[in-house]
Recover the amino acids of this structure.
């Protein structure tokens, strides 16, 4: 009986290892579904600065994670390609007090400079910028707050999964499998929120560009990213 039990334990362990997905990789199912890997876990290939230069030394790839270097002043990095309708996924992990974000539809505005709509990443408890609801983790930064009843965020040192879905003018923010914010670009509630934000005077209207790059923000804190992938819709 003991021998049978031991064989069963080994079988279960092997089965779990076989079934587990390697980080920064796509399963055969994901490939069939059209997912595209944006980070290979080894290099910064596919990521550039806003001016088109290679990712700076302020970003490093270590242990399969794309991480900001503490006090490295690496600045933000963006995807080489632009995206319109998409389903975007990424895991992130922050240090205490960190402030970062994922920007999408990042583009150059006629008035306002280079801008993007931001999915805020924040340590809601310890970060300095935690006084406004629309600045908290999961918000559409400075515009719309997340649904706190649905939001379940793991603290610094633990991994969280962000999902951003943009289809037409409709946008969804997800965190750890829960939809925490949904809005329609150009709707009255949207335009009212933008009008009350720091982005009120951009031309064209903020967030109304048709397409843009995905941006990983370096905002002084240490943040790591992994499993960065996108599917065109």
């Amino acid at each position: 009986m003991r021998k049978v039990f031991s064989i069963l334990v080994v079988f279960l362990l092997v089965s779990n290892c076989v079934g587990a997905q390697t980080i920064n990789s796509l399963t055969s199912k994901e490939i069939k579904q059209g997912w595209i890997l944006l980070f290979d876990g080894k290099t910064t290939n596919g990521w550039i600065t806003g001016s088109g230069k290679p990712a700076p030394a302020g970003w490093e790839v270590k242990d399969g994670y794309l991480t900001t270097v503490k006090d490295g002043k690496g600045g933000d990095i963006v995807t080489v390609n632009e995206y319109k309708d998409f389903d975007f996924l990424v895991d992130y992990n922050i240090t205490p007090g960190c402030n970062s974000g994922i920007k999408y539809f990042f583009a150059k505005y006629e008035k306002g400079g280079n801008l993007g709509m931001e999915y805020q990443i924040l340590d809601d408890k310890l970060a300095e910028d935690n006084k406004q609801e629309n600045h908290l983790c999961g918000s559409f930064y400075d515009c719309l707050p997340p649904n706190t009843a649905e939001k379940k965020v793991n603290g610094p040192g633990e991994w969280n999964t962000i999902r951003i879905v943009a289809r037409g003018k409709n946008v969804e923010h997800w965190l750890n499998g829960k939809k925490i914010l949904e809005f329609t670009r150009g709707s009255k509630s949207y335009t009212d929120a933008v009008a009350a934000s720091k982005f009120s005077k951009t031309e064209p209207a903020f967030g109304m560009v048709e397409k843009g790059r995905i941006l990983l923000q370096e905002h002084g804190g240490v943040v790591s990213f992994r499993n960065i992938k996108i599917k065109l819709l």
